[in-house]
Amino acid sequence: MVLLVNTCGSEGIVALADEGGVRAEERLPARGTSESLMPAIKRVLREVRVGELAGIGVVAGPGSFTGVRVGLSAVKGLCEAGGVGMVTMSRLELVARAKAMEVVVALLDGGRGEFYCGVYRGGVKVWERLVGREDALKAMEMGAAVTCEARVVEALGDRVKLIEEPDGAEMLVLVEEHMRAGVWSDVATADANYLRRTDAEIAAEKRG
């Protein structure tokens, strides 16, 4: 059994899956994720103990600072307490996998007129970064553009294909690939994939 957690989007997802696919899945509200996450995890686990899981997969960003922190912190705690391996995933990579093209450009709203952008060639990450509108449009020339956020299409045009937020089944495919390859994230050192620096980090740099 594998537990899957994504709290980076407009709504969160918690799912329990095995080799046969997703067995239970809950959607978390856009607001109040910090309060609803642990109860949802308890419900999907039901009779399964954390220590019995083969692994826990978590989307580590990019997305809302609060959502990213809540999900990653909760999964880290579960992994440490249960002695379970952790797999971290990029939300951009999950979005990119929805488009079966040689080069895929995944885009998410970064706020402040900016965009989280990831370029993947043959399913392998070329780069991920925070870009402005002009750089996002240039990146789109590299391949097929895709997003799971309507406001990205509104800002960049209908050249960007709109899809649903990746669900538990799509997360499971990526997590299983990591597990089969023995690619695990270090629970102690794994960090959030913010791409954007926090206001505190920017302020500290200015003071320095």
Describe this structure in words.
With 208 residues, the protein is an alpha/beta fold. 36% of the residues lie in helices and 30% in strands. The strands form two sheets. It has a five-stranded mixed β-sheet with strand order 3-2-1-4-5, with helices on both faces. It has a five-stranded mixed β-sheet with strand order 8-7-6-9-10. Strand 7 (114-121) and strand 8 form a beta hairpin. Helix 1 (33-45) packs parallel to helix 2 (65-82). It is globular, with a radius of gyration of 17 Å. The termini are far apart. The model is unreliable at 200-206 (pLDDT under 50).
List keywords for this structure.
208 residues; alpha/beta; 5-stranded mixed β-sheet; 10 strands; disordered C terminus
Total DSSP E strands:
10
- Extract low-pLDDT stretches: 200-206
Give the class from helix and strand content and strand pairing.
Answer: alpha/beta
Described by strand count, sense and barrel closure, the largest sheet is: 5 strands, mixed
What's the arrangement of secondary structure elements?
Blueprint: E1 2-6, E2 12-18, E3 21-28, H1 33-45, E4 55-59, H2 65-82, E5 86-89, H3 91-96, E6 103-111, E7 114-121, E8 124-132, H4 133-140, E9 144-147, H5 150-156, E10 160-162, H6 168-181, H7 199-207
Parallel strand pairs: 1-4, 4-5, 6-9, 9-10
Antiparallel strand pairs: 1-2, 2-3, 6-7, 7-8
